[in-house]
Design brief:
alpha+beta
Length: 125
């Protein structure tokens, strides 16, 4: 378990209804744009438009703001992110825990050398 600083949110949390999405028909140009896929965030909590695949190794932030290594475990759903509609990926982590997480909310990152460097710089890893 790794933890990052907690954020204060003064607005009440609204339930987010996730909807099934057909990726072949989904207009997610922000994910499909190769410049976004190749660009990398400067800070760990920054949103990162990224399209994952089933089985990808990731880092996921839990509801308690701890970061865990995990694995994408299926196809995404679409829902409201901090920046509008975005993809939420099903992730398994910490043994048998499951969560839908959105890269555009800054709560899901690919397990890459750059991500690990950001984890170290943030004092999480």
């Amino acid at each position: 378990m790794y933890s990052s600083p907690k954020k204060n949110s003064s607005r009440p949390k609204q339930p987010n209804t996730l909807r099934y999405v057909n990726l072949d028909e989904c207009d997610d140009s922000i994910y499909g744009d190769s410049t976004h896929q190749e660009s990398q965030p400067d800070a760990f909590d920054e949103p990162w438009p990224y399209r994952f695949q089933h089985g990808d190794c990731v880092w996921v932030r839990s509801t308690g703001y701890e970061w865990y290594p995990g694995k994408v475990s299926g196809q995404p759903k679409v829902g409201q992110t901090m920046t509008g509609d975005g993809l939420f990926w099903p992730v398994t982590f910490d043994g048998n825990k499951r969560k839908y997480a959105a890269p555009l909310n800054g709560e899901l990152k690919p397990d890459t050398p750059h991500t690990r460097q950001l984890l170290e710089e943030a004092g999480i890893l």
